[in-house]
Amino acid sequence: MFRYLKNLRDKKATKIEDIHKFNLPPVPKFSSKPKYKEWCSDTKTDHVFITLQEGECPSERISSKNAVFACNGIIIDYDAQTPDEVIEAGINTAGKKYVKPQYYHKTFSGGLRTIYPFKEKVLCSAEVYPNFIKGLCRALGVERLFAGVDKSSYEASQVFHLYSELIEVGEPLDPSFYKPILFKSLEKAPPKSSDTSIPLADVEEGIKQKYQNYNWPSFEVGSRGDLFFVEPYKDSEGCMVVEDGIVCFSTRAPQGFMTWKDLLGDEFIREYEKKKYAVLNEEFWYNGKSYYYLDEGHPVTISDKLLLLELKHKGFTSDVKPNKTMSEIDSAFRSIAKHNRVHEVAPCIWNKERVVRHSSNKILNSSNLVPMQPSDVRDPSKCEWSMNFIEQLFCSGTDHFFHWWKRIYESVLTQQKAQGQCLIIVGPSGRGKTLLSNKFVGDSCGGFADASDYIAGNTTFNKELAYKAIWTVDDTVSAASDQDQRRATEINKRITANPKIEVNEKYQNAVTVPWTGRIIITTNDDANSISVIPSLDSSNEEKIIALRVRDDASKSFPENEDLEEKIQRELPYLLREILEMKLPSRLKGSSRYGVKGFIDPFIKDAAYDNSSRSTIAELIDWFCKEHRNLMTHANDIWTGTTTELQQNIIRLNDGKHLGISHNISILKRGLHSLSEVSNLNDKVRPVKSIGSGGGTVWVISLDKKYDLSESDN
């Protein structure tokens, strides 16, 4: 229980087996207190300087290199001289309000020293000791009983000269008095480990697997129980759970603080730490501006504050552990910013990877596209209504439609990129054009997005469109001008021809991602609606499948709710039928688009009549008629440059421009378009260009049979 040093410079702590049988050597007489202190510090002095604390090496004095390990009680010094009658009164008060010390004696200066030994030694680490001793002294009322408490009495390394014989007035402190104080101190300031923090549920699971003696009813901070890890096993309370390990107060324990590494081994800690930090790599990301986490597999923005809460929930702590420069949470933030750094966040529909590398950028894939799964078996009877609806819908090109649909559906289903044409469906209202594009094709490919504003050039923001493989445009957005139609044509060409799109979102940088989806344009067959159709010139024909709906196509449909339910029920079986279709050689197109382009003749003519090219065609038609009227001799052709044509039009119109003739660049582009169309359509007036490197000469047929008035007749 007691240990002593021979003098204040002695490093050896000798155990006193029985303080009652210990013979106290006589103390020399000193003329002054400085002389006394000099004697106490002399290495030749051989007397008794007691302590009730033990270091990690019990036989050595407690120091910075030999931290306190066990506590046998507390010794309190009072600096003020205390008369005997005051001592007697104070001890009586202690007996009534607190607990009497077991011993007391007088110091060299006439002060009082009280001694409270424990009945049982408890293990107490250096981290816990200060709070424990302060709590113990409060419970004993040491500062209330007598004046002049020397606060150095609270230090574990302090030793006290046994100047006079001990006077016994009480009993050793019972464990029921000081152990609750120890437990409370542990809860306030538990010892810490430098190892990673582990949730107690995971620790308990590891303990159950390793220690057969473990049978605690609960395992949480503050739980106390037996030393299940000590052999031979003894069923008696000896330790308490804290966040980083088990604090032992029984002397049977190998040490005062058993970390989880001590109990479960290095391998357990390494594996858990690996698993713990793997969560960061799988769930959290940073793009230089914002943090993201996976919510049901979909990246969403998370504030620093919410990320902090998420990390705490996953077992990361905000305390800086011993020998560490930052907390686990700070380390987690750093790890996310360093190892899970991406450039942008965008959907990459055709990639299964969470992080996609594209054009030297690391893109956090935010795609949440889920296509409809086809049925496992073929059963045409279970999609009979749907198949009949599609097969009776178009004037021609039904096979083109099915194989176009198969190509995009297979592409989305397998996440294999495959380009394809823009699909245009033209026909009378109420026949199911939108139904086909949205509920059949759209639902099969995981949904659709309305791209009307984007295709029309009314907005450049398309982040939401990028999440879908099917973009739809309806005839509610018509081309207000030739410029609008040209813009829509160029956007359609770019999207159809390129296997990537630039994704633009408000307040974010644009990012290019792989994208090989489809545009579906549905329109009525009136002139205003058809204006939404992009130009069908030779450069665009391969990129388009344009189908005309029959005038006598069915207009009879079930009620909306019943219709949607029927389609959802039949669609998986219809998709299975489509997947089983074999592409005929006559429909096989280039490797780029898979299926040949197809444009219904009616749509081609209607699109031409409503395009900007019809304007130049009307101007050339007027020119040919007026020129023929002034010809002095028969001639089948007019030959000249664009400038000469412009001058002829002005001359024929009394010196004024007519239509677009004022803009020679537009006039020239129009002539090129007419040249292309006339090569494909024998009803259109032949326009040929002759170039020799110095400019273009146009050869225009003046034949009356090509006059628009003649064509109409």
In words, what does this structure look like?
It is a single chain. By secondary structure, the chain is α+β, with helices and mostly antiparallel strands. It is 36% helix and 19% strand. The chain is built from 23 helices and 30 strands. The strands form eight sheets. The protein has a six-stranded parallel β-sheet. Strand 18 and strand 19 form a beta hairpin. Helix 3 (129-140) packs across helix 5. The longest helix has 21 residues, at 560-580. The model has no long low-confidence stretch (mean pLDDT 90).
In brief, what are we looking at here?
With 713 residues, the protein is an alpha+beta fold.
Classify the helix fraction into a percent range: 25-40%
Oligomer description: single chain
Q: Which radius of gyration do the C-alpha atoms yield?
A: 47 Å
Indicate the low-confidence ranges by residue numbers: none
